[in-house]
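Weekly puzzle thread! Below is a chain. First person to post its structure in token form gets bragging rights.
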Amino acid sequence: MTIFLGIFVAAAAAFSGLAYSVANSKHFLVIDRLLQRRLFVREEKPFSRALSLIFAPKLMVLWDCLLAVVLILGGQFLAAAWALGTLAFADLCGIAVKHLIKRQRPYNHAETKTGWSFPSGHILGATTMIIIVWTLFGSQLSGALLAGLIILGLTIAFARLDAGAHYPADLVGAALLGFACSSISIWIWQILLAIIH
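Winning reply:
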């Protein structure tokens, strides 16, 4: 159980350092902008657009609700509540940080992309959902599931860069925040399971 507290502390510390750099370091921002312009500036491809749509933060809530329905039908009420609560907690943290940092999106992003850039809501939701799915089903399925989930997460990250909607730090920050929120949620869930049983 303490491993999840360790993951939380490490991810939260790394995220805090990154968020501080995004908010306060002009040198960091220059490097982040150079990376974004040099490596990832291109026209958004249909595949990237489709991934961005399928894994949009609002649709991620729908996927989480569908997962909760499946869990409830299987009699796993606590797991369903935990899955819903974990994504809601991560999303609320992400929204709070977005409004605290208020980082503008890259200059070359599509005009239809609105909202703040740091952290990426798509990657925050994807990271959190990947951890939720792995926590609930990882012991029952092979390591291929984890590999597939990681590949999916990385593909979504590159799709967001392809769309010109984010800087690299936005994606790393979102993944770190997803790890921090999920690990503290897993820790709380394990305490609840220990109390119930």
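Puzzle host: Confirmed. Bonus trivia for everyone else. The helical segments are 2-24, 26-40, 46-54, 57-73, 77-101, 121-137, 143-162, 168-196.
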